[in-house]
Amino acid sequence: MFRKQILIALSCCSLLAFPTFAQNSEQYGSGLKLNLNPEGNKYVRFLVWSQIWARYNQNNPGTLVNGSPSQSSMDFGARRLRLLTYAQISPRYMIVTHFGINNQTFTNGGGSGSTGTGGYGQGKKPQLFFHDAYNEFAIVPAKKPVTGQTNTFTLSLGAGLHYFNGVSRQSSASTISFMMIDATIFNWPTIEMSDQFARQFGLFIKGNAAKLHYQFSINKPFATNLVPKDSANIAVDNNGESEASYAGYVDYQFLDQESNFLPYRVGTYLGSKRVFNIGAGFYHQANGTRSSNALGVVEKHPINLFGVDVFADLPVGDKSKGMAVTAYGVYYNYNFGPNYLRTSGTMNTGTADPNFPAADKVLEGPGNARALMGTGSIYYAEAGFLLPKFSTKLRLQPIASYAYKNFEALRAGGSFFDVGCNLFIDAHNAKITAQYASRPLYDAGTKLLKDRKGELIVQFQVAL
């Protein structure tokens, strides 16, 4: 069955075939932009994108879908529906807002209080919310205001709900230009716990010193209050009156320089740039978690997270064929406190069957949940190859990724595999991605590897 699903995923990418040289379509130009003066340096710009998923999932043991036992399920849903707008009326000042919805399925993702059946039934009428909302002032802008010469050192200061994160490149990933179908999610280590969809309120600085690019922030994490299990020595998110968090990421860009105008890091340039970067980052919050030790005494623990990564995106071979290779590798060292572990599944439509035999349960829980992140280490790599062009529009890019997670709370490391293909209809502005994922499952009692399950996803993306 697994072989058949992998073949289906790869076949989805070969159904069509036609080149775009750049990360965005050549027809896109400056996009949806409203100029406020004849020179075009005072403006408001809009970006709109939609990512719709079609999925087939092998559910974890003990899964109910809308109350019915389910070994596998198929669904369609909205992974992301977003609108981003930013305005600049001087070379120094900018405001950014970004809102939308995520993860709406036929069973969940709806608005607050949407349950049962009817007009506000489960999964219906999701609520828009802000992802980013920040102001930014360029203390040392990219160009000197009088002469127009480029500054080799730049510095900007910003405040608000922002995405200038620490730890790794992918912690500030652009959701439009992913190479794989989606983020790993463990690249956002505090997601939906002490942050709002990978954002916190605070202050940040960003800029570059020649080829060294940097971003640092001090934030106020959102409150968490999970209660630690008595005498279990398992850390949970509970930060009390939360102390400030500190985060940063720097990378040295050896070849072409990437823009840091907005925080969103590109996943693949499709051969339009020659990029080779090495980076490192961190995140720290004192007293971010709590546990109850063997004596029943509650202890507080800092959250200390570190990452080191490398990114390359390079044209290869005959220029007329437009081929390119993209590769990314990262090592994460995460410490959330003793035996901390989070399990989660993206757009998970499953719930736990209370009557399922305890001996057959898996640690991850129902649906497509997996051991996501925890205290320990994660090694992750992804790569893609943009095939030679053979028409004037469409491009194919086979892709693959591998993650190895070794967590303190588990008695064995686990390997996660993904393989698929991007069909670029018009660069990242219109693309279809098919990807098959294989995940390990752990026995709920022994915490040893028990089984594997798979998930096939086809994504339809349009970004304007």
TrEMBL record:
<feature type="signal peptide">
    <location>
        <begin position="1"/>
        <end position="22"/>
    </location>
</feature>
<protein>
    <submittedName>
        <fullName>Short chain amide porin</fullName>
    </submittedName>
</protein>
<keyword id="KW-0732">Signal</keyword>
